[in-house]
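sorry for the late reply, my laptop died twice this morning and i had to redo everyting from scratch. anyway the thing you sent over, i finally got around to it. pasting the sequence first so we're on the same page, its 319 residues, then the predicted structure underneath. double check i copied it right bc i was rushing
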Amino acid sequence: MPVTQKVTVQGERWFPSEQPFSNEIKELWGNWYCDSEVGKLRAVLMHRPGKEIEGITSENFHDFRFRAPINPERARKQHDDLANVYRTHGVEVHYIEGQRTDRPNAMFMRDLMFMTPEGAIVCRPAIPARRGEEKAVAKTLASLGVPIIKTINGDGYFEGASAMWINRETVIIGTGSRTNESGACQVETELRNIGVKNIIRTQIPYGSIHLDGYMNMVDKNKLVIFPWHVTYDCAKQLLDLGIELIEFTNIDELKLGMGLNFVALEPGKVVMVANNPYTKQLLEKNGIEVVEVVLDELLNGWGAIHCTTAFLNRDPLKP
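ok and here's the structure:
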């Protein structure tokens, strides 16, 4: 009888796996995901203020783009309090490793990365005073095992707070002083590549630098907005998608108290800056549960809760 010879297939004749990246990310990389601003929050990336905020005084705070001097120890205590609120609600808090000590705005992590269902987009800040912060972000993401699907390059600049998830198929991207057309196009290309169908493009007006300065999601289909900064075209597209727009009209709490600069812990529940009674009342009137944290020292850097928090993992937002 003839002997059947087993043929060993050589490497050059191997066939590739045609599994999409999204099917393998959890097994091969880890549980990293974000397709909304409100899905149950599971993991965040933060930077606890370090040496970089020391020496900001009444004589030089304008040079660092702060609105007032900052007390380093009090700022760190408030940052720790926010991190503990996250932990209390089951959120894993990761910290940046090896950040520069000459970048006092580095605590505002939202600007430095934008999380997607398939990994992080590493941003490129607009102003020279923040350039270079993103290197430590990229190194930390790599050490955690978070895929980096894009680093903004060329003549583009883009900051993470210039984009906002509405749902898995819809993202708002704003252009303005912190994100130019090149940066926005780079982000849009990546988002469309991973299945985002609706990109709502809008201008961020003079007087705001990021979207979270005048809008923020509080629930699956609820968006709080400062109406005088939202363009008609943007509002109309959101309404057509079934998004309820809750109008926030207290400019003092918007600008000085940063009332809209909150983070959703889950659909219908947010952590917000304390001492904003109008904001709290408005949210509760619309069925939103509120957790407050004192953050007035960090506000001296023109940022609050949403600014300090980069999302790493949220539960997928179900239709």
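The chain has one domain: 30-314.
thats about all i looked at so far, will dig more tmrw
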